[in-house]
């Protein structure tokens, strides 16, 4: 299963995957595509951690990526990261992956300055995520963060089994 992490810089994409992998904190912004491989409940997962800076993302997004799942990230303390989800969605369209299952992780709930439920309700219906995870990654341990990815993988696997065509 190939998973793309998309969202503005500083919203927690790299913290999310590095916490799951048991790696230390990253130093500075992600400046290139980072690829992580892991096994989640028997499913081989490849995670593409895209940089959140638009100019860096633009050059990478021109490559041909085929992903199965998109995890979008927003920051509960920064309204712009929610409105910028429309930019990231337009990039999904450009990359030909907009029809893939989408999930939303709203990070930094410990310093929430905007009500994510209100913001999420204003997203275009086509962007509607399957599930929303409200988190505070800085306050979560490896097991808790891995549980989010595990739940996403299980949901996608369940959906895939339901829609699989019999041979």
Automatic annotation (TrEMBL):
Keyword GTP-binding set for record: yes
Claim: Nucleotide-binding is one of the keywords in the record: yes
CDD domains: Ras_like_GTPase
An example Gene Ontology molecular-function term: GTP binding
SUPFAM superfamilies per UniProt: P-loop containing nucleoside triphosphate hydrolases (SSF52540)
Keyword vocabulary terms for this entry: GTP-binding, Nucleotide-binding
PANTHER family in alphabetical order: RAS-RELATED PROTEIN RAB
Identification of the protein by name: GTPase
Source species taxonomy: Archaea, Thermoproteota, Thermoprotei, Thermoproteales, Thermoproteaceae
